[in-house]
Amino acid sequence: MDNKNSILLINPTFEPSTSTNCSLLVKIGLKSFSYAIIDRETNKVNAVYDEQECGDGAKKLADRLKTDPYLTLAYQDVKIAINTPNSITIPIELYSEENIGANAQYFPEHHSNNIYVDAQQHFNFRTIFSLPKNTDDALNFTAAKRFHENAGLLNQAEQLNSASLILDFTVGNVNLIYLNDNRVIFQQSYEIADVEEFNYYLLLMINQLKVERSTMVYICGIIHENDHQYNCLLKYFNAIEFLTISNDLDQDILDDMPAHYYSSLLALSKCV
């Protein structure tokens, strides 16, 4: 433990000298930051770090890059999923490689000159995004692959065939994806100060998109059965399941943690 809002779990047999066989997965939320180290030869999760309520997830990563020896190891690959307001989703039939830069005019905030593309082949769209300049400068990982924050959740969503609502909770924030007919209908990130604010955004989505009570709800992140947000969902939906990742990762170091806590982070291991 670094402080009351963070946790670091390390496999006691992990040797930093073997990091070139490993992937580093990083997830930067609006006010949270987490990473995982996965051995690509054994599929073993060797480390998980998580910090909630850190004020600014990108700044926290920049700070930890100066002090955390695990972040400066040489890795086989690095994947970073990042929260940013500067993103546009474009259907694949309207996407043009030549016009990527022109989309920057629609970003709501100042950004760096680097434009990234997150390809969602299964759902037939591209997410074009950019980061605040200070954030982009801080992410000085060599050859890191950058993804939009929801990339891990969308990877998990590929397995869902019926109308589904996926919610990924961090402290004070929720990422939400609504799917129907194997299409992403809506995705958004909301800051939520309390359950009343969560209820407001949930009802807004339900009413505007006419989401049925029979829609299957999948939840992950910092949420527990019968807590306020869970019970709020029960008011509007018949069935709720915790979303755990369906891959062959050895997650022994997380045995004492709820299985759904790090689903969206670990799902990055399947993103390409």
From TrEMBL:
Stored InterPro entries: DUF3822 (IPR024213)
Domain of life: Bacteria
Organism: Pedobacter cryotolerans
Pfam families reported in the protein's UniProt record: DUF3822
Name the record gives this protein: DUF3822 family protein
CDD domains membership: ASKHA_ATPase_BT3980-like
